């Protein structure tokens, strides 16, 4: 499927169980932190999803730290359809949204930096994001031994 034909849309309340299921699947593998239903509900406006034939296949969120810095978070594609272009479509939508909000820097913490590199992100030192480290990372069980790679796109 071409990423230009992928139907990315804003998440709605009825997507919450599917988003949580997708995120918890990856959290169980250690690929991201689990997010509670309440956390997803509180941040639902940040989420975008791909739903095809009534099935939620991918999700991602754009969360702001400052007017100039936002993060691609919770980017997940169902494991059996990875490399289908769904993740790329969601990130492109989030980049477009960030630009429309005049965000200057878009970052992500990831285990798959090559995916982001192909989209124009560059690997950077995560310490350049104190907003992320002291706002969210400090509460992570991996805080003192973080193995994620920081990537950044200047918009």
UniProtKB/TrEMBL annotation:
Which InterPro entries does the protein's record reference?
A: Acyl_CoA_acyltransferase, GNAT_dom, NH2A_AcTrfase
Its domain of life reads: Bacteria
Residue ranges annotated for the N-acetyltransferase domain, each copy included: 6-155
Listed A to Z, the keywords are: Acyltransferase, Transferase
Q: Which GO terms describe its cellular component?
A: cytoplasm
Q: Return the PROSITE patterns for the record.
A: GNAT
- From the Swiss-Prot or TrEMBL record, what is one GO molecular function term? L-glutamate N-acetyltransferase activity
* Signal peptide boundaries: none
Q: Name one GO biological process term.
A: L-arginine biosynthetic process
Which PANTHER family does the entry mention? AMINO-ACID ACETYLTRANSFERASE, AMINO-ACID ACETYLTRANSFERASE NAGS1, CHLOROPLASTIC-RELATED
Q: What is this protein called?
A: Amino-acid acetyltransferase
Q: Please name the source species.
A: Arenicella chitinivorans
